[in-house]
Amino acid sequence: MEVEEIVKQLISSEKSAREIIETAKNQSKEIISKVTQEGEMMVKNKISEANKVAKEMIDKAETEAQSESKEIIQKSISEVNDLKNRYAQIRETFASDFVTNFVKSKVQN
């Protein structure tokens, strides 16, 4: 009887051990699944955050580029207007000097 009792206990212990192992496997799978999901969410969040930062940087660069472009255009327009004014002054001075010299030459002759 004693041997029979020991065999029953061993069988019962083996069943318990198998159940414990199966439970541990299932819990491990659940933990791995949760960690995987959390990892994927973290990656998605980091990608989303990186995209947001990149968009902000692009928007800022575009704004700065537009601002600089406007400044360059205004400076170019100002320089063109200055050149127009100088040309008009040179033309007026040349015409005035030409007429004055022409009249002087006719009066002296």
Protein architecture, described:
The chain is an all-alpha fold and 109 residues long. It has one helix spanning 2-108. The chain is rod-shaped.
List keywords for this structure.
single chain, 109 residues, 1 helix, mainly alpha
The fraction of residues assigned to DSSP E strands is under 5%
What characterizes the major β-sheet?
none
Q: What would the average pLDDT be, to the nearest integer?
A: 92
Please write the string of helix (H) and strand (E) elements: H
List how many beta strands DSSP finds: 0
Low-pLDDT runs: none
Set down the secondary structure blueprint:
Layout: H1 2-108
Summarize the structure.
The chain has 109 residues and is an all-alpha fold. It contains one helix and no strands.
